[in-house]
Amino acid sequence: MPSLLIRRVTMSFSAAFVALLLLVAGLASSNLPQAHADESVSVVLTPASVSASPGQNLTVTVNVTNSGSGTLAAGEAIITAPSAALSTVADLDAWFAAEDNDAQPGRYLAAADVPEIAAGKSADVVIELPLSSGRFGGIWGVRGLAVDYQVGGDSVGSARSSFVWTTAVTPEKTAFTGILPIVPPPSTSGLLTAEELTELTGPSGILTRQLDVARGRPVVLAVDPRILASIEALGNKAAESVLSWLGVLTSLPNESFLLAYADADISAQAQSGASSLIAPSTTDVIVPVVEALPTATPSPTAAPLPTAAVFTPTLNNVAWPVASSVIGSDLGIFSASGLTTSILSSTNVSGNDMSAGVAGGLPSVVTLTGLSSALNHNDVSRAASYLAVSSVDESQGGRSFAALPRETFSITGLTKLGLTLDTLLTQEWVSTGTMSSGLASASSALEIVDSPESSQRISVVSNLLARNAAVSAFSTIAEDPSLITNPAARELAAMLSVGWLGNSDWSTAVGESLRSSEKVLKSVSVVTSSTINMVGGQANIPLSVYNGLLQPVTVVVNADPNNARLIVKGSEKVTIQPESQAKAQIPVQAQVSNGSSVLTVSLQSVDGVAIGEPVSIPINVRADWETWGLGAVALAFVGLLTAGVIRTLRRRKTGSPEAS
Fold this sequence. Notes:
single chain; five-stranded mixed sheet; 27% strand; elongated
């Protein structure tokens, strides 16, 4: 009996103990984060210096951001580093592309506690790394750094960075060249307005800050021709800040070239089936200055821009597609459009010399994708590492090209970019380079690694190109087709601007563009009318045509009946003055039967291009009234004539006095 009591007490105690453990575990687990909350926790590792030498420590900052909805418990940041040098661009690309998950690559360097982080907040932890623990040895070069952020022993986030391990033996310098777009923010307009130019070229304007980045730095200027065309269109009406900006642009000694108009996406055009790239003209807004003989009373003209302010690029016919957007067949379209050199991204090509070469017959320079990305994010340590690797990687040939931010229109971002470039140019392994020297050295073959643009984007671009072709065909009816085609091509280029990539407003802009062009296509049309009554066998049916354009148009009016009651004898060519109507007379012939018929009236150009949508016009046919009326009159006449003859003959037979 006592033993049974003891067993019962023991079992009760065990059950209570287990329940207590479960309760404690439940309370504890309610405060712990999910083991792999990768989507809600982001980690960034930033070295305080781009390089370090033997005997030095390196200070780094670990930033942890909690984008989740709950509090992130306190954790620990563990820093590790592989001992071996990253000696090629491919090695460095692979280092940054790898995902650590629960792994800690390399040797342990240091660890630090990270405090609890509330939802939507961040925490920065500064850690001094004893680099001697890394055993990096005496080989100069890039070393990787990694941070593993753990909470409760589970890895919830990681990040990678790098720095340059500088020893007594330094390599040859790499010649660095950045390619900087001089472009306005994306818009749907083919020309910039005077107000837009004034704002963009003001002291804090985007275009002004872009030129500031180029001053005194090895930066090639890739200039949007839309800016220059807009300034020329204003002539002497351009604001002082606009002319001053243009003067600075022309005075800079930097290498330069012209982008596609509005920096239109040339790869998307080629992959959408275009046989050649669009090349908008500005002849309708910019009148070339022609020197005339002096006259006694010269006519007043708008003063042109000063000759000194006319921008002339140092490099010509350069194709610069979006990074990693080219397929092999694109290069043929580029060449057919008059482009003779190109700028390609390293992830889009393969070859032995990866800084310059010949792709599809085009001498090309190759921008380092990793370096370009680092500069776009102002990651100076990563950028310095790519330049350091380029100085020892034989495939780079002692050169490094980078595409500077092409879709960033932040004044703060441009200011940081300038500071980042200054930091890079002070490093002992970096010198200044030029694009022309890279093109001059381009001799080895580069193979294109196909990287097509998304099917969704190509579908939209195809629709825009098709609509532009329709507008071009429509313009053949106009007295001056260029007044229609030039603005349409400029607006199309603006819609294809690289600046729209990643912009959620692009779909809205595309819709507006399609509606605008639809309005043009419907500006000349047949005016609908009520039922027309046709009496008789032949008639000219009057049809009205409306022209909503600001210039005369000439169209051919055609009509097609829906049954055999009417026969259309021909069409008529008619010219309609601006914003007015004109009538065309269509000759028709009615058959004998009466009834209803419908004329389908359509327009076309003199060359046979269909214009607008056909219009149906009902016709009431009364074809037999005239025929039967004439028959009755003829019959009556014949009857009267016959009666007169009979009467005369009778009188002669009877010998009436009247007959004798």
